[in-house]
Every structure is written in C-alpha cells, then in structure tokens.
Specification:
alpha+beta; two-stranded parallel ribbon; 7-stranded antiparallel beta sheet; 8 helices
Amino acid sequence: MEPLQRNKGMKWPLKLALVSSLLTFGLYAKSGSNIDNQKVIEALKKNYGERAGKRGNAWVKILTQDKALSERDKLEKVNRFFNYFRFVDDIKLWGVKNYWATPIEFIGVNGGDCEDYSIAKYYTLLELGVPDEKMRITMVKALRLNQYHMVLAYYETPASVPLILDNIDGKIKPATQRSDLLPVYSFNGTQLWLNKEKGRGVLAGDSKRLKRWTSLKQRLGVNNLKQPKLKLE
C-alpha cells in the first residue's frame, strides 16, 4: 500500500484542479465541462478492444444520465457498476507490486485491486457532482482478511458517520456496521488524514504527500494508457 511521504505539497482548488488535469490530458471536450464521451469510448476500443468500448459506453451513460439522482442513489449506482469488475492483484495484472490504475485503465482491462475500485468510484461520483469534501479514499486494515485494503467513504455531513463503498462487501453500510475495517489513513483531492483514533481522523496535510496519488492525477485521460500483463478477456 501507499506509504506516507514527508515532503510538503502545495494546495490546489477542488473541482477546478480536477477539470484542469482532465483538460490537459484530453479527457474533456473542448466545448464544455462534460467528458468527451466519444473520445473515451474510442480510446477504450483502440487500447483494450470492443468489449472495453461497451463498458466505456455504459460508464459515460452513468455520467451523462444520472446527474439528477440523489447523492445516495448515485452512490448505489456507481458502487454497483464498478463492483461487477474482476478483482486481480497488481502483480498479476500489471506486472508491478502496487499500481494505481486510472478509471479508464480500470474500465479498459475489466479488473483491478481495491485501490482501483475506490479511485474509479471517487472520480465517477466527483463527475456526477458529489462534492470532494464529502468523500475520502480510505486505507483500512481488513481484520478478517488480515491485510490492508482500500474503500471509499462518503460523509453526508461533516459530523455524519461515513457510508462505506467497498468491493469486498458490496452493500453500502455505515462505518459503524463495518467492525471488520480498521481505518489507517484517508485522503481526497486536497487533504490527508491519519486515523489515530475512531472518527474522522487527524488532519495531516496535503494529499500530494502520497506519491502514487500524485502520479495517478498526472495520468488521467486517454493518452498513454497502460497495457496489462494479464488479459482478462
């Protein structure tokens, strides 16, 4: 899992920074803020095949047709969509020990590990209008499996018990019903928290301390999509 880095990083605005990154890497259409659906689908077909293009088409339908849903309905739909993907360890899929795939790479290869599920859900919900401050990608210790794991936590309000979106347990549950998960640290577009105690954790600075998170944001888009070592279809 991703170690914490001690170097300081500069803060950046929430949605503006995401849009800026995606514009730079060719994911957004020039005419507006919506994702360039056709460009994404074509890139998926070209890099991963026809079935990947169909998955991409299903994804962009969610992005374009489900913006008016309630936030809870968005959580349910996005969680269900990505949990259909196959779980595969990074070393088998990518040939490296710990690779954080972009959402398009995850959709393209039709699988990944816990980080990939959480990241894809996070970015999809962000595009659907769920505020960044309501979400945290959270590293936990999965006590029953005795291993580190990653989930997405959603806070309806700052004081709310978070809802957990997970690929192990597909049903969205409040954190109080997930005694099998022990939070370690969490982050979103700008901030990083250390979970030294129960609750929301202690603010520990900028999320750019996480090198793999910074690398991921630089790779968003349809250019230079990584090819897997293992073909899942």
